[in-house]
Amino acid sequence: MNARRKNRLYLAVAVLMGLGLTIALVLYALRSNIDLFYTPGEILYGKGEAQEKPEPGQRLRVGGMVMPGSVQRDSKTLEVHFKLYDARGVIDVSYTGILPDLFREGQGVVAQGVLEAGNQVAAKEVLAKHDENYTPPEVKAAMQENHKRPPEAYKDNHS
């Protein structure tokens, strides 16, 4: 093999290794920025046929209805605690910040944050549902399922 061919081979190998490294880094970055959507019931009992539950420390989005009477605001800070429910369960959410104007008890919301031990979500962002025309299909289906079971059904089991 002459020197010119060797140089081209080394160049081709270096380009392929660089491309492989770039693709690996991009995929790793995208994986760490994905927030999967769950309902309260899916957090408690699992999702899909394998009943996969999110692990504490996992970033996620959780959508459900704000349980009437569950909103507790700290008078000295912007900290808010509330419960989200769906047809299968109730979870606690804590958030520090200004809530959206459309945030109300009995209203659908999506909280984006980190799952903590005890099935509690430390939300970094809370989005209030405003119009079904802009709701993703999976969120809309979950919200329709939420209306099948009233929040009073949880008071004895999950208070």
TrEMBL record:
Subcellular location: Cell inner membrane; Cell membrane
Keywords: Cell inner membrane, Cell membrane, Cytochrome c-type biogenesis, Heme, Iron, Membrane, Metal-binding, Signal-anchor, Transmembrane, Transmembrane helix
A Pfam match: CcmE
Extracellular side: 30-159
Main location as per UniProt: membrane
Keyword Ligase set for record: no
Record keyword RNA-binding present: no
A molecular-function term among this protein's GO annotations: metal ion binding
Skewed-composition ranges (Basic and acidic residues): 145-159
GO CC terms in record: plasma membrane
Stretches assigned to coiled coil: none
Stated role: Heme chaperone required for the biogenesis of c-type cytochromes. Transiently binds heme delivered by CcmC and transfers the heme to apo-cytochromes in a process facilitated by CcmF and CcmH.
Family membership: Belongs to the CcmE/CycJ family.
Name by which UniProt lists this protein: Cytochrome c-type biogenesis protein CcmE
Phylogenetic classification of the source organism: Bacteria, Pseudomonadati, Pseudomonadota, Gammaproteobacteria, Enterobacterales
Name of the gene: ccmE
